[in-house]
Amino acid sequence: xxxxxxxxxxxxxxxxxxxxxxxxxxxxxxxxxxxxxxxxxxxxxxxxxxxxxxxxxxxxxxxxxxxxxxxxxxxxxxxxxxxxxxxxxxxxxxxxxxxxxxxxxxxxxxxxxx
Length: 114
Known about the structure:
Strand order of the largest sheet: 6-1-2-5-8-7
Number of domains: 1
Shape: elongated
Oligomer: single chain
Helix content: 10-25%
């Protein structure tokens, strides 16, 4: 009896984990045609230091946006809305492949007037 390998099981595991544990985001590769996607969103705050002060600002990271759902690398033309930050539109920055190699990971920045 041949047992399946982790590589063979990864796509189904990724899908199941994203569907159950992921946050729903709205993603538009072209900036206009939004579709619901599952991803892991880290809404952590970051301390930014300036010459005489420190401020807290949102430092949101999107991880685990499956390449099966978004095969092309997200570009600055893409737009994202996040359930926990209503009324804001974001674009991806610092896009990279995630540690598993099956998804995209990136930070987001607010699109002014978006």
